[in-house]
Amino acid sequence: MLLESKKILIMGIRNKWSIAFGIAQSVYENGGKLIFTYRGDGNKEKIEELVSEFKGSKIYALDDASDDEQVKSVFENIKEENGKIDGIVHSIAHANTEDLHNDFIYTSKNGYLHAMETSAYSLLLATRTAKEIDMLNEHSSIVTLTYHGSTKVINGYNVMGAAKAALEANVRYLAENIGKEEMRVNFRQASDNNGIPSSVFFSSLPYSHLIFCSVFSQYDFTSFLYIFRYFCTFSNKNIQKHLADYFL
Description:
The protein is of the alpha/beta class.
C-alpha cells in the first residue's frame, strides 16, 4: 500500500463532510497511521466518535493553530507519544462571517489579520515548528488545501481569497527552504463541483527548482495520496506521470 506504516498528521479535522476527513479515509485505506489535531477540548467526544473508524488513530486538542507556544507544545507531545512522523496535512482556514458577507473593501483590520493568521501563518508555523523540534522523518511531505478564489474573484469568498493567495506563496517559499533537506511542501486546489477536475499546483523543490502541476477531482481522495508518492507535470495538454518515486 502507498502509505504502509507512514504516520500522517492531519491538522484541523472537524466533521465527516470535510476534505480532511476524506483524506483521512484514503490515508487509512492505504496503510497510513493517523494523528489528528482538532479545535477545542469541548469537541473531544465528537472528534473521538468521528475518527473511531480509524483504528489506532490519536487526537490532540489545538485551540489556536496560529499561536506559537500552543503549536510547539502540541507538536512536542505528538512527537513524544508517536515518534517522528512522515507527513502533515494542513486543513485549517477561517474568516469572520461579516468579512465573507460584506464586499472585500470593507474587511476590517482585525478580520484581515485573523484570516491571514489562521489560514496562512498557521502553515508556516506548523512547518517551522516541526523542523525545529526534529519531528519530521527523512523525505517527509507537507500538504495544504487551497481554492481558486486565490486567483479569481469568487462571490462571497473575499478575504479568504487573499488568505489563500498568501498560503500559496508560503508554500513556494517553504518548499524552497526545506526542499534543501529533501522534504516537500505542496498545495492542493479543490474543485467547485462534485467530480469536476481541478488544478493542483504543488511546489516541490528538493531535486529541482520547478513547480509541477497536476489535476485531481475534489472527491477522488485516493489520487490525493500520489502527492506523497509521485510528481506530475503537464506536457502537450496530457498529464505525464514520472515513474520515479520521490520519497516512499
